[in-house]
Amino acid sequence: MTEAPARTLFVNARLVCPASGLDEVGSLLVEGGVIAALGRELRTEGGAEMVDCRGAALAPGLIDLGAFVGEPGAEHRETIATASDAAAAGGVTTIVTRPDTTPPVDAPEIVDYLKRRARDTASVNVYPMAALTKGLAGHEMTEIGLLLEAGAVAFSDGPRSIPNARVMRRTMTYARDFGALVCCHAEDSDLIAGGAMNEGEFATRLGLPGRPKAAEALILERDVRLATLTGCRYHASLITCAESLDIVARAKKAGAAVTCGASIAHLTLNENDVGEYRTFFKLAPPLRSEDDRRALVQGLADGLIDVVVSGHDPQDVETKRRPFAEAEDGAIGLETMLAAGLRLVHSGDVPLGRLLAAMSTRPAALLGLPGGSLAVGAPADLVVVDVDAPWVLDAHRLRSKSKNTPFDGARLQGRVLRTIVAGETVYTYA
User: Fold this and answer.
1) Residue 171 resides in a domain
2) Residues 6+ apart with CB under 8 A from 21
3) Distance between CA atoms of 335 and 345, rounded to whole angstroms?
């Protein structure tokens, strides 16, 4: 991280603000860690560092809602420091961390520990998500009020759904009274037990047990109905199929406070990418069919999908270099989220502003966080990206401690040139 100058003027930039719909060439002035001014003919009197963007896009920094960072308990997979370095290289200026650590984030003192570790080691903003139930066991709700006071920004049981509908209803009711956002993984644990990839013809050909889409739709339907019953703010962390989109669409039409997210992997890859048992493509939920992927892309373009996330879930070599059915689920994604997402822009499926809204503006609004905008007075959390720059990804050069990326060797188009947090440059592409 470089020391922030008193004033920085970004010139020759394509200013892209998804919050206001702005997309024009101009300049932007940063002063005291916030955006001080922007416009076509912006001028400043001496004392400002000049940054020539050379026509690259200047946009709000990305906000990743729900990344696994390893601390505490899994520092061999990732740390807050290495995750934040990877995030900065990918244009992510804010990470919201998952609660499924060891121990889980189910007490105020653990939230406080994460905040202190982030303050001491992170180069980007880090906000903890707390557990919905104690020990992530799905039986007894956590002290949501105390966790909010400690600094938690949302509540989830990580990659697990709460199996008991009564517990889920009580938890939602309690969360509603605090205005808390409940983020849930939608998969029936009994239906997916033993499954290794999307259930269907391709899994049968590979001789692998499948995880049916119905497992997702069943839990999502239940949770949406409970959210409607309780008035809770409910966010489906990851949806992967057309059936789930239909459920969310009905809930939104009925006026329920329901939102949903999708991972960049599920938007840009499908079950065929598993190929000959390639374990870096083994995810949870699994990659679905091309029809489902196309439905997700259309849902993003239409605004039905609110948030795009990295799905960052680092795994070490020993847990991935196994037979497919035995390998751990998960892939890293902080550093590749934006570049992979730009595939959808270059294909003409999703406008750039809509993609950035799902990666910055909408997460900020859902969580009540600053950022996601180029408005005057907003935090100077910014990314400069050449949306047309071609490059080939080399996993060994990624900054994440783990290297389990499904995009290794992929040809990408869109390179992050600079990432700024509170006016300070935390990453520059050399």
Assistant:
1) yes
2) 353
3) 18
Q: 100 with 187, same domain?
A: yes
- The answer to whether 359 touches 385, Cβ cutoff 8 Å, is no
Tens digits of residue pLDDT in 364-405: 999 999 999 999 999 999 999 999 999 999 999 999 999 999
Instruction: Specify the number of domains making up the chain.
Output: 2
Q: 111 with 182, same domain? A: yes
CA distance 87 to 104: 22
- Judge whether 372 lies within some domain: no
198 phi and psi, to 5 degrees?
Answer: -60, 130
- The parent domain of residue 290 ranges over 61-367
Show the 3-state SS of 37-93: EEECCCCCCCCCEEEECCCCEEEECEEEEEECCCCCCCCCCCCHHHHHHHHHHCCEE
pLDDT digits (tens, 9 = 90+) for 282-325: 999 999 999 999 999 999 999 999 999 999 999 998 999 999 99
3-state secondary structure of 396: helix
* Boundary of a domain, candidates 367, 397, 419: 367
Q: Per-residue confidence at 4, pLDDT binned at 50, 70, 90?
A: low
Q: Which residues pair with 261 in a beta bridge?
A: 307
- List the structure tokens of 383: 């990314």
Alpha-carbon gap, residue 209 to 225, rounded angstroms: 30
Residue-averaged pLDDT of the chain: 96
Q: Where are the alpha helices (DSSP H) in 347-420?
A: 352-356, 362-367
User: Would 1 be classed as within a structural domain?
Assistant: no
Instruction: State the average pLDDT over residues 99-105.
Output: 97
Query: Looking at residue 206, which CATH number applies to its domain?
Result: 3.20.20.140
DSSP 192-204: HTT--EESSHHHH
- Claim to verify: residue 44 and residue 169 sit in the same structural domain: no
Non-local CB neighbours of 326 within 8 Å, separated by 6+ positions: none
Regarding whether 185 and 107 lie in a shared domain, the answer is: yes
pLDDT tens-digit series, residues 328-342: 999 999 999 999 999
Together in a domain, 171 and 294: yes
Strand segments, DSSP code E, in 244-299 are 258-263
